[in-house]
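User: Let's play a game. I give you a shape written as tokens, and you guess the letters that built it. Ready? Here's round one.
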């Protein structure tokens, strides 16, 4: 390439680099601006007109800043801001706050300012509690309180102090924990209803109600152990009582029934004896001698069941002779007739006169 050709090329490049870019027409610029504005509007409408509510949430719709309605979980449409706005709260989620300590991960950090309080007998006690709550009314929750958690914390602390301040220390750390817990819950529910916070109190549970750490805590721990031992012995005694009393009542009932049976038996026997006596007495009145002899013989049979009985007539003036030895030797199963020299001896028949 010659020097002349190089100079020509440099001149052409210089002329091309100094050329002005082509100018856009006004109509083209307007179209571009309109397109950009339209795209921004579409993006804005898309991002402010649709919203999503999760499973444990509920949304409050505000029309020109005023509460209008609520929506549940799902994808919803609303008018773009500033016509309508949405506030999403965890209304379906059970939440909790800690009184007297803060939970940081798995570690519990004490908060003595909340935990320490005075009992009714002017002693100091440390109380830790957990309050479970959820949102029951979104309108009241959003408009009646500014900081729901702080309000609930203050209300719970106030309720605990009010209840424990009316109880004695010994009762608060032993038998009264459950009663105090119920009273605090009622008082806390009453405060939520009074101020219309839109908060529902599900439950409150005390973690610990105990005196401050140190020698005082150790002394009260011993008192608590002694009280628990006392309750154990009382329960054992009640168990023994419940075991023995039914048995004693059963034995007493058995004795009463046995006595009642004996009573009825004796009454019946007595009535039978009376009837028998009346019958004998009736026969006695008809024939006194026969009945009298019969009674004597029956009595002798009962008194001397194996004895031999000989009946003789002693009306005569002579002395009777009875050969008893010979009569007894003659045999127990037969009756021997006495000799002729003796008066006749006969056995008296049942109910008959002696001969």
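Assistant: Ready! My guess for every position:
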């Amino acid at each position: 390439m010659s020097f002349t050709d190089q100079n020509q090329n440099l001149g052409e490049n210089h002329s091309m680099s100094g050329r002005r870019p082509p100018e856009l027409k006004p109509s083209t610029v307007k179209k571009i601006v309109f397109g950009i504005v339209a795209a921004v509007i579409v993006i804005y409408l898309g991002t402010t007109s649709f919203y999503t509510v999760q499973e444990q949430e509920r949304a409050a719709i505000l029309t020109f800043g005023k509460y209008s309605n609520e929506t549940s979980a799902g994808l919803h449409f609303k008018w773009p801001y500033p016509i309508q706005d949405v506030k999403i709260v965890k209304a379906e989620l059970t939440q909790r706050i800690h009184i007297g300590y803060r939970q940081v991960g798995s570690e519990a950090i004490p908060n003595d300012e909340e935990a320490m309080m005075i009992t009714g007998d002017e002693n100091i006690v440390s109380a830790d509690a957990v309050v479970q709550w959820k949102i029951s009314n979104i309108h009241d929750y959003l408009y009646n309180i500014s900081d729901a958690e702080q309000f609930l914390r203050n209300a719970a602390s106030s309720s605990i102090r009010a209840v424990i301040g009316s109880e004695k220390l010994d009762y608060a750390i032993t038998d009264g924990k459950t009663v105090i817990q119920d009273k605090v819950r009622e008082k806390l529910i009453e405060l939520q209803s009074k101020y219309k916070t839109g908060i529902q109190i599900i439950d409150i549970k005390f973690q610990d109600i105990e005196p401050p750490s140190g020698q005082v805590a150790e002394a009260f721990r011993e008192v608590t152990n002694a009280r628990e031992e006392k309750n154990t012995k009382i329960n054992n005694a009640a168990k023994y009582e419940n075991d023995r009393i039914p048995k004693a009542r059963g034995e007493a009932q058995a004795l009463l029934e046995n006595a009642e049976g004996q009573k009825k038996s004796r009454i019946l026997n007595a009535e039978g004896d009376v009837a028998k006596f009346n019958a004998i007495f009736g026969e006695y009145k008809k024939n006194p001698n026969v009945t009298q002899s019969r009674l004597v013989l029956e009595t002798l049979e009962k008194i001397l069941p194996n004895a031999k009985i000989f009946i003789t007539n002693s009306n005569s003036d002579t002395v009777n002779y009875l050969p008893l030895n010979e009569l007894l030797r003659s045999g127990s199963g037969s009756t021997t007739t006495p000799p002729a020299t003796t008066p006749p001896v006969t056995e008296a028949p049942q109910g008959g006169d002696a001969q």
